[in-house]
C-alpha cells in the first residue's frame, strides 16, 4: 500500500505544480480558462485519492496522528508534496531492510 501511496503523492505534487505554474498562467496570461478546468480536475482527483490513501495508511501502519497531519499539510504546499513522496520512499526502504 505504501508504494501506491508514494506514487499518488508524487502525482499529486506534479499536478499541483502543473496547476499553479502551467494552467493558471495559461488562464490569466493567455486567456485559456479551460487549462485550469482540466488541470484542476486532474489535481482534485489526485488530492482525493491522496487523502484516502493517507487515512488508510495511517490506520494500517498505526502512524501517529501528527505524521498524518504533517503529510496532509505538506501536500497543500506545491513543492512540499515531493517531500512526502521521498519520506514514503525512506519508509518503504526501512521496511524492506527489516524483512
From TrEMBL:
It is found in: Cell membrane. Pfam families: DUF3817 (PF12823). Keywords: Cell membrane, Membrane, Transmembrane, Transmembrane helix. Residues 2-89 form the DUF3817 domain. Its main location: membrane. The chain crosses the membrane at residues 9-26, 38-56. The keyword Transport does not apply. It is a multi-pass membrane protein. PANTHER family: MEMBRANE PROTEIN, MEMBRANE PROTEIN-RELATED. This is Integral membrane protein. It comes from Sphingobacterium zeae. The lineage of its organism: Bacteria, Pseudomonadati, Bacteroidota, Sphingobacteriia, Sphingobacteriales.
